[in-house]
Each structure stands twice: as structure tokens, then as C-alpha cells.
Specification:
The protein is mainly alpha-helical and 54 residues long. Helices cover 41% and strands 0% of the residues.
Length: 54
């Protein structure tokens, strides 16, 4: 009588635990970020940052 074949069973992946929610940045922090964006990002992104946060 032939032996039954063993079937490999993959272990189930558990979902990652939820990440903690970060508090929203303050306006002062965003001003510094917008200033730092000049010359690093495109001018359109820097202008959008200033229009939105400053």
C-alpha cells in the first residue's frame, strides 16, 4: 500500500498591529517645513505649501 503524500502547510500570517496615530503638526512646524521646501522640491509644491499652511 502506498503512503499518502505530505502536504506542506504554510503558516498563516498575522496582520500587523495598528500604528499609533500621530498628532497633527502645528502651524509653526509647517512654516519651517515650507521654508525648507524651497530649492528641494518643485516651485509648485513649495507654493502650494505656502498657500495651504502659511
Amino acid at each position: 500500500m502506498a503512503k499518502p503524500k505530505k502536504v506542506k502547510v504554510r503558516p498563516r500570517r498575522t496582520p500587523a498591529p495598528p500604528r499609533p496615530v500621530r498628532p497633527a503638526p502645528r502651524v509653526g512646524d509647517m512654516r519651517e517645513l515650507c521654508r525648507a521646501a524651497h530649492g528641494v522640491t518643485s516651485p509648485a509644491v513649495a507654493a502650494l505649501c505656502h498657500q495651504t499652511y502659511v
